[in-house]
Specification:
By secondary structure, this protein is an alpha+beta fold. Helix content is 24%, strand content 22%. The chain is built from seven helices and 19 strands. A five-stranded antiparallel β-sheet has the order 1-2-3-7-4, with helices on one face. A five-stranded antiparallel β-sheet has the order 10-9-11-17-12. It has a three-stranded antiparallel β-sheet with strand order 8-18-19, with no helix packed on it. Helix 1 crosses helix 3, helix 3 packs across helix 7 and helix 5 runs antiparallel to helix 7. The longest helix is centred in the last third of the chain and has 23 residues.
């Protein structure tokens, strides 16, 4: 599919620019009869909304979604669902001086090299605001997955050089994630990161970090062979997010230092009373695993263990420190980037990571219905 669309059965196309009239998405392939309320979409958009304090930009958008098609009387029709969110607080004048200058660390030069022309206002389609359409589409996918008993939860697992406690270790608190602007799973550590990011803001600098995601309720057997593997599809989805530079499942890169006797996820007997998993053929044991080093994926197919991965995000390239760069004529120019920008993208990347996870899983789940007669 074209570079603005993704999915095979459950498909999404996003549209719009950071400083254009609006942004949105078109979702096709969503099953008919799904209960969908505008609040389902508004709730997710509010989580990625700028102006939430902490390390985020001061741009304040209401991000109110409009459902233009595909839903009637609170139910999906099985036809394309179009969602529009209008821009109201753009300040395009902040970017006038960038028309002929390529910002360091941005897609300005690469975009112009590809198309011969670019929207210099906030980066256009390469802006983080493009994720708005993904999050809106992901909200629909989340409702579909929720009906299947699948729950997706993300959090900022590191920022500005400070690591959050590992999942299920002392100090990790899932309930704390939505209570602080960093989406850090530890209240005291979140205060340290906020202090550090505020200092970076004063200095005109920025910070990188990581976002972790955990999916529960995912049955074994999800994923397509060879080129459609679950982890490969998720990796492509995550790396399509702006500023995402890496992804690791389970033990991730630590697996390179492990031995097979440690790394192998060994099956163990099922927990009594947990019930059967209908995707398994008759007679196949209901497996659990003694470890989850693989992050819930083996052979590119879900094992039934929680799906666990972490995405790395680079520091926000829009910084107000003076930098040297080039203009269209090849001249060296001094640049101070103005405008309103995040100091660390991770807190607002959490709902985007969840959305791309939901879209990928919804698509693979619908594909899996074709696996058996």
């Amino acid at each position: 599919m074209a570079g603005n669309s993704s999915g095979t059965v459950f498909t999404v196309t996003t549209f719009g620019e950071s400083h254009g009239p609006g942004l949105g998405c078109i979702v096709d392939g969503c099953p008919a009869g799904l209960s969908l309320d505008i609040d389902d979409i508004s709730r997710e958009l509010s989580r990625r909304r700028p102006g939430g304090g902490g390390p985020s930009t001061t741009r304040s958008e209401a991000d109110t979604p409009e459902i233009l098609s595909g839903v009637f009387q609170g139910k999906t029709l099985g036809t394309p669902i179009a969602i529009l969110v209008r821009n109201n607080d753009q300040r395009s004048g902040d970017y006038d001086e960038l028309k002929d200058i390529y910002r360091p660390g941005h897609a300005d030069w690469a975009w112009e090299a590809k198309y011969g022309f670019r929207d210099h206002r906030g980066g256009g389609r390469s802006s983080a605001r493009e994720t708005l359409g993904r999050v809106a589409a992901g909200a629909i996918a989340k409702v579909f997955l929720r009906d299947q008993g699948i729950v997706i939860r993300g959090w900022t697992s590191s920022a500005a050089g400070i690591n959050a406690p590992a999942f299920e270790s002392p100090g990790f608190d899932f309930e704390e994630v939505e209570k602080n602007p960093l989406r850090f799973p530890n209240r005291e550590l979140s205060k340290l990161v906020l202090k550090k990011t505020e200092q970076l803001r004063i200095e005109g600098d920025s910070a990188g970090g990581t976002v972790s995601c955990r999916v529960t309720g995912l049955k074994p057997g999800l994923g397509e062979p060879v080129f459609g593997k679950l982890d490969a599809r998720l990796a492509a989805a995550m790396l399509s997010l702006g500023a995402a530079k890496g992804i690791a499942f389970g033990a991730g890169f630590d697996a390179a230092r492990q031995q097979g006797s440690v790394s192998n996820d060994r099956p163990i007997p099922p927990t009594p009373g947990r019930g059967s998993r209908p995707l398994l053929p008759p007679g196949v044991p209901d497996l659990e695993y003694a470890a989850n080093n693989a992050g819930g994926v083996l052979g590119g197919i879900s094992t039934g263990m929680p799906l666990e991965f972490t995405v790395t995000f680079k520091p926000v390239p829009s910084i107000s420190k003076k930098q040297e760069t080039l203009d269209r004529q090849g001249n060296i120019r001094e640049l101070v980037i103005r405008g309103r920008h995040d100091v660390c993208v991770c807190p607002r990347a959490v709902p985007a990571v969840e959305a791309m996870t939901a879209l990928t899983l919804a698509d693979l789940l619908l594909l899996s219905r074709l696996d058996r007669g």
